[in-house]
């Protein structure tokens, strides 16, 4: 019994040593000394259970196609905790993705969530790039095919068909976040220094300025 007790103590110590903070649910969470000053507690405050209604767990409208009349020819309708309060603390969200013919969901990342995508209509060229070394994994998906994009990695989808395409995606966070690479690099506010960008991309100042004009807010 003494040996069993020692083993249980060792197991408990190991479990405590391997514990870690939960994943963040926003870009940053500045600590405050006074709770009255807090806005977020790594997510959202919880509603009094006595006041919860069935409506808190319902979102309507994913049957409606998104507007793809834009430069990229795509639209993402995200159902996260801001649009469906019942998702709070559950670690999941959902998105509808509409693509015009040859429409693109441009290279982007979700800093807080893995994405699993299923094609409902059409054909999509999809892919993601690993961290160094930057290896591309890519595939053409057809109706009924499923693909997974690991958390934090740059990924994209391109409609390679002559007709509109439709996909749905599940994400492993109630607020996965999205960083669209081109917008973040060339359209940040305030803008990144041109000296930084010319050196990073090894191109002339005029090229960087032209790109910044394209993504200017």
Automatic annotation (TrEMBL):
Residues 60-209 form the Cupin type-1 domain. It is found in: Secreted, Extracellular space, Apoplast. Keywords: Apoplast, Disulfide bond, Glycoprotein, Manganese, Metal-binding, Secreted, Signal. Its main location: secreted. It holds the Pfam family Cupin_1. Residues 1-19 form the signal peptide. PANTHER family: GERMIN-LIKE PROTEIN SUBFAMILY 3 MEMBER 3. Belongs to the germin family. This is Germin-like protein. The lineage of its organism: Eukaryota, Viridiplantae, Streptophyta, Embryophyta, Tracheophyta.
């Amino acid at each position: 019994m003494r040996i069993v007790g020692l083993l249980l103590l060792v197991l408990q110590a190991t479990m405590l040593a391997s514990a870690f903070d939960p994943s963040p649910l926003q870009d940053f969470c500045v600590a405050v000394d006074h709770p009255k000053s807090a806005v977020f507690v790594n997510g959202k405050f919880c509603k009094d259970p006595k006041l919860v209604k069935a409506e808190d767990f319902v979102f309507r409208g994913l049957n409606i196609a998104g507007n793809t009349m834009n430069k990229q020819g795509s639209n993402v309708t995200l159902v996260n905790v801001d649009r469906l309060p019942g998702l709070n603390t559950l670690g999941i969200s959902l998105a509808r993705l509409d693509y015009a013919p040859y429409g693109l969901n441009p290279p982007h990342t979700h800093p807080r969530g893995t994405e699993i995508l299923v094609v409902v209509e059409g054909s999509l060229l999809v892919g993601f790039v690993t961290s160094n070394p930057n290896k591309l994994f890519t595939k053409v998906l057809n109706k009924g095919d499923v693909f997974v994009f690991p958390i934090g990695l740059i990924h994209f989808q391109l409609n390679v068909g002559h007709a509109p395409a439709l996909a749905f995606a599940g994400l492993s966070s109630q607020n996965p976040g999205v960083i669209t690479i081109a917008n973040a690099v060339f359209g940040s506010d305030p803008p990144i220094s041109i000296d930084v960008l010319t050196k990073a991309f090894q191109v002339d100042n005029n090229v960087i300025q032209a790109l910044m004009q394209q993504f200017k807010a």
